[in-house]
Design goal:
- With 242 residues, the protein is α/β, with parallel strands linked by helices.
- It folds into 2 domains: 126 residues, Response regulator (Rossmann fold), CATH 3.40.50.2300; 92 residues, Winged helix-like DNA-binding domain superfamily/Winged helix DNA-binding domain (Arc Repressor Mutant, subunit A, Orthogonal Bundle), CATH 1.10.10.10.
- The strands form 3 sheets. A 5-stranded parallel β-sheet has the order 2-1-3-4-5, with helices on both faces. A 4-stranded antiparallel β-sheet has the order 6-7-8-9, with no helix packed on it.
- Helix 4 links the parallel strand 3 and strand 4.
- Helix 7 crosses helix 9 and helix 8 crosses helix 9.
- The protein starts with a helix and ends with a strand.
Length: 242
């Protein structure tokens, strides 16, 4: 493999205090086309993040010291790097907690390495998805220009949310949700349709979680949204400034 080939490989950081599992995952992912680094805990992961760029993080939740959930919440204040959480706890409330913390996906142990690989590839594909086509059966044209949301401006061509000169960090799921809604302003999307089109893991409740997170970033008062509305019994709609 040439140096140029290595540079093209997505770089994944696996963070798990279980040395055997960490090494097994690193070997498996390396054999499937990824450049992989490993860290035994959150402190070691932070040290690596300070000096290296990663395309995706695979974090174990139950680690000594700072947990994977706490690390995810902290990173979301400074980075939009995709995060997939691993945990021995697979209850729905645990999955929701992971999504609320800012994770892009959640995989319960034990799992098949093949499933982890599929989920990683799905997240990385979502990162590369461009603005979506309008919803089937709607007459509303795709909105290609900037979308004004009060003090915020969403630029579809860059998939970027800005507040003046500042770029607002969005997770993969938040970015996908805003991209779909902004492409067809005024069109109501059901939770099921958003789940499918945004490729967000989980059930319809997962969309509610992402809507809540997105509102915190674009609304002056998330409890009384001006732009991202709930249509009772139907779903969600974005109504930007005209």
């Amino acid at each position: 493999m040439t140096e140029d080939d290595t540079e093209l490989q997505p770089h994944i950081l696996v963070v798990d205090d279980d040395t055997r599992l960490r090494e097994l995952l690193s070997k498996y992912l390396s054999g499937n086309g990824f450049l992989v680094s490993g860290a035994r805990d959150a402190a070691a992961a932070r040290a690596m993040l300070a000096s290296l760029d990663f395309d995706l993080l695979v974090l174990d939740i139950m680690m000594p010291g700072e947990t994977g959930l706490e690390l995810t919440e902290s990173l979301r204040h400074e980075s939009d790097v995709p995060i997939l959480l691993l945990t021995a706890r697979g209850e729905p409330d645990d999955r929701i907690a992971g999504l609320e913390a800012g994770a892009d996906d959640y995989l319960a142990k034990p799992f098949q390495p093949r499933e982890l690989l599929l989920r990683i590839n799905s997240i990385l594909r979502r990162q590369a998805v461009r603005p979506a086509e309008p919803a089937a059966g709607t007459a509303t044209a795709v909105r290609l220009g900037p979308v004004k949301l009060g003090r915020y401006l969403y630029l579809p061509d860059r998939d970027e949310l800005r507040a003046g000169e500042e770029t607002v960090r969005l997770t993969t799921a938040e970015s996908g949700l805003l991209r779909i809604l902004a492409a067809s302003p005024g069109v109501t999307f059901s939770r099921e349709e958003l789940t499918e089109r945004c490729r967000i893991a989980g059930n319809a409740r997962a969309i509610d979680v992402q809507v809540t997170r997105l509102r915190r970033k674009i609304e002056a008062d998330p409890r009384e949204p001006r732009y991202l509305h709930t249509v009772r019994g139907e779903g969600y709609v974005l109504r930007p400034d005209t």
